[in-house]
Amino acid sequence: MGKPADRAPRAMTRAEVGAFLDALAAANPDPRSELVYRTTFELLVAVVLSAQATDASVNRATPALFAAAPTPAAMAALGAEGIAAHIRSIGLWQAKARNLAELARLLVERHGGEVPGDRAALEALPGVGRKTANVVLNVAFGEATMAVDTHVFRVANRSGLARGATPRAVETALLARIPPARLRLAHHWLILHGRHCCKARRPECWRCVGARCCRYPDKTPPPAPAPAPVSRRGGDS
Predict the structure, then answer these.
(1) Which residue among the candidates 6, 149, 199, 236 is catalytic per the annotation?
(2) 104 in a structural domain
(3) Any residues with CB less than 8 A from the CB of 72 and at least 6 apart, and which?
(4) Are the C-beta atoms of 160 and 11 separated by less than 8 Å?
(5) Does residue 216 belong to any structural domain of this protein?
(6) pLDDT tens, position by position, 153-188
(7) Using 50, 70 and 90 to split pLDDT, how confident is the model at 232?
(8) Catalytic pick among 30, 131, 218, 236
């Protein structure tokens, strides 16, 4: 997951937290998951597949998988080998294929083929940890959960929004610092901000809408403009 920056920023004040979230909300008033899905089951499968993989790679693989197995019963019937044929382009595909086959079987056996809206029931499924359960509860069931992936972990620590050495510590801090009414959307704002602006190797601070509130001490300047091409004129013949 990574570690907090060595030069730890001071914590944002409550006012700065509010202003930071205001800026993210103004820039993206209706944030959505970048995973492509149609049903709660497809969302759950896509989130399981996205562990240690990009959403883009998942979105390339799932159309054929969902066409072959749109329901838990169909995916259980497909089995690990059949699932694997569709997801070999995704990291850890062998383990994920096994997990999805068993997950689908248990959804049919324990939940009548429906995805449960209960954290304990979700986390009892193969391949579903706390982060995955938080995403499903947030996106599919509208709960004010905070899934801490690598992007949220980085943004929270780097900005001073909420520091912690582990994803669970950051989740606890974010739940305490973000107003409850904003938690559900804040989950998306922070993921997307980390993915597209507050990047791991070099944050693009010069275009960050929340830079005024961010406490990161090493803000990056805009890249230098490319040098103008040298004009070369031919001599007289």
Answers:
(1) 149
(2) yes
(3) 41, 103, 104, 105, 107, 108, 113
(4) yes
(5) no
(6) 999 999 999 999 999 999 999 999 999 999 999 999
(7) low
(8) 131
Query: Does the active-site annotation cover 149?
Result: yes
Are 35 and 59 in contact, with CB atoms under 8 Å apart? yes
* Furthest-apart CA atoms within the chain: distance in Å: 87
Within the chain, residue ranges assigned H as helices are 14-27, 40-49, 55-68, 72-87, 93-111, 119-123, 130-139, 150-159, 167-177, 180-196
- Region of residue 227 (phi > 0: left; psi between -120 and 50: alpha; otherwise: beta): beta
Query: Does residue 131 carry a catalytic annotation?
Result: yes
Give this prediction's pTM: 0.87
Q: Which amino acid is at 93?
A: W
Q: Answer yes or no: is 154 within a domain.
A: yes
Mention every residue, 6+ apart, whose C-beta is less than 8 A from residue 74. 68
Mark 43-75 as b/e (b = at least 16 C-beta within 10 Å): bbbbbbbbbebebeebbebbeebbeebebbebb
* Contact between 75 and 101 (Cβ < 8 Å): yes
**Pair 46, 135 in one domain:** yes
Cβ proximity of 162 and 214 under 8 Å: no
Residue 28 neighbours by CB distance under 10 Å: 16
Residue that is last in its domain, among 104, 124, 139: 139
Task: Determine the residue type at 169.
Answer: A
